[in-house]
Amino acid sequence: MPLSDTQRFAAVDIGSNSIHLAIAERHGDQLKRVASMSEKVQLAMGLDAHNQLSPAVMERGFECLQRFAGRLRDVNSAHLRVVATNTLRRAANSQAFIAHANDILPVPIEIISGREEARLIYLGVAHTCPSNKQRLVVDIGGGSTELIIGQNFTPLLTESTQIGAVSFSQQFFGDGMISALAFEKAIYAAQKEVIKFASLYKKTGFDEALGSSGTIKTIGQALAGFGLGEEITLAGVEQLKASLIACAHVNEIEMEGVKAHRKAIFPAGVAILLAIMKVFGIRLLRYCDGALREGVMYDMLSRMDFHDVRDDSVAAIIDRFGVDKKQAKRVAKTAARLFNQVQSTLSLPADGEQMLKRAALLHEVGLAIGHSGYHKHGSYLLRHADMAGFSRTDQEKLSLLVRYHRRAINMDDCDRVIKAGGVALSYLALLLRLSVVANYGRFELSKQQIQLAVDDKHWHVTVKTDRPEHQACVINIQDEAHWFAKWGIELTVMGA
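User: That's the sequence. What structure does it adopt?
Assistant: Structure tokens below.
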């Protein structure tokens, strides 16, 4: 019997080495994987010295996503996320790849930060291998390695390091030769990168260590093939290193569990794991068959059912930078009312309301730096802050909404907003501007105080002027007409 849309969740992970797809069926608050696909694309191998993705590697990625798209037709788009990690974070031409890929996929690609990747990895591990112990999770990817300490479902420390099996293969085993010297250089480079976190991680402490994703899975399988058991020990990985050196070349690797497509990056993965185990004093590590894709799906489940971590991130920034909460809530209330008045007319997406409300709550965050140009300061903070739950894509949209909520705007600015989020984002920017000017007086507006009607390119605002201060609201909105015209919108306002 086919699964219904409401029972299915799916995640696509565009990694540096492979692109993965997972589809899961919901059973209460748990997800059971029912299908998975994985293809070695090696995007990271296609990066040149200027961090440009080659046309050939991009084409491999498109072909893979085209095949995956066929498996996603029966998944409700509200239950699907596509995330991209290190290579698309680094690639100078990542937007060219994303633009074409978005034409293939049912939902847009989200580039996530390293720390957000780490958070989602931990979420996947925590649900797949539950425990109340405090744990260190290690995930060695193609372009980055994530290190997380957490307990239950809460990550306590998250770091993403610039070491990966593909990048290290290019750097230390690029000719395919495996030598003791190459291993030592790779181990030293990895240790140099992770040792900066060692003190804090050791101070925080952990009762056990877990590994996730393909590299660590392959190491575990190779050790099992040697008869060394299911668990990964430091002594076992050292033995694996010695065996690889004896092979002398990646083409000569013949080990149980090491698939042909993994041979080229396997020595680098072993070197990275050795470095981490030595730096953090890990004698034993268990593999967990849950990682980023599972984390993405459980994050979607959480957003739908009971808790959206993005709201926690917004609240934390408000507290950290001393935002006027009363004014933030006033603007957010007005923004939500205006959104609901015109959502249908402007064909705004349902999730646009939450994006608009979050921008409204954060529109004054830049005042913590300075009053002059605070909209620019706020935009910078939101673009570069670590905001759990947000993709880089959504942070950029949030940043642009805050940037253009006041002061001058030109056609280049309009184009920038539309490029980032389409016409819908430009409408959200205008709704935020209206909400801010309507609340200049910093007093509460009633539900019926301001009404917005849209007729094609004509926006008409009606303000109930039953109090003197509300007349000022009309004047403030009239002053916005010049800037609305830059967006091709005629704005009129009248009191009632």
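The domain at 5-111 is CATH 3.30.420.40 (Nucleotidyltransferase; domain 5).
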